[in-house]
Amino acid sequence: MLFVNYPKCSTCRKAKKWLDEHDIEYESRHIIDENPASEELREWWEISDLPLKRFFNTSGMKYRELKLKDKLADMSEDEQLKLLATDGMLVKRPILVGDDVVLVGFKIKEWEEKLL
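and the corresponding structure tokens:
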């Protein structure tokens, strides 16, 4: 599994601890050093079955700074994916990617249902 995270993020640290406690193997990827490309994001989004807005870090400073709350509805999916690919701080984290599962954010119940 691929664990896309921001090490300074407390939620990412909790998710990492949860993975380690459940002996789930993963490769860790720093979202700032290696931000997902729009093609990757599109693939993950399609696997996840989630609305594309869930991939945005809506509580982040960058999201508010760009006033995306008001702009996303007028953007195409391609435009949104390209925007996400420009800055890892716009992307909701952590993201856990497996062959047939993509989890965005860390919700213990959801992770238990999908992974255990």
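(Above: one complete record from the training split.) The longest helix spans residues 10-21.
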